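2024-03-11 09:14:02 INFO queue: dequeued item Large ribosomal subunit protein uL6, len=179
2024-03-11 09:14:02 INFO validating residues
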Amino acid sequence: MSRIGRNPIPIPQGVKVHLRGNEIEVEGPKGRLSFRFHPDMKVSVSESEVKVERPTDRAFHRALHGTTAALIRNMIKGVTEGFTEILEVHGLGYRVSLKGNVLELNLGLSHPVLYRVPEDVKVEVKGNEIHIHGADKQRVGQVAAEIRAFRKPDPYKGKGIRYKGEELRLKPGKAAGKK
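2024-03-11 09:14:37 INFO prediction written
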């Protein structure tokens, strides 16, 4: 049995969980999230916990079991605590500023890159760091990946946008020729 799916998911105070058919909706202080799970999975909601069960022990159902439980657990964490991703901008002359809901990135290109921040995600700029907050883990990660894709870290100089704490192995430059 799945070790992740087998454990009941506790529902903290102030969080409401509604189950309609094969759709679960979680509402809390940070927002509301909904998820449509596979019809083979059986989800039951009680006063203090959510349980996910699977019909058979086939590999497909085992995979769905753990995934469904993990997604519901992330939804509950998202509406209570939220998720944060931090990006660092490295490079001489590289700047980031937030103007309304548009992120302006000067990344050494011939033009500034403008990125419209989605409604369900909050972005803050602190020096050379971009803080991305939101209730939905997938959306926060997707926005961070889209921003990082504008200028991935250069493997030779290390310039670009990277996740906070990301280890970057720099390649050696071109060796001088021998005569």
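2024-03-11 09:14:37 INFO annotate: The two ends are 66 Å apart (CA to CA).
2024-03-11 09:14:38 INFO item closed
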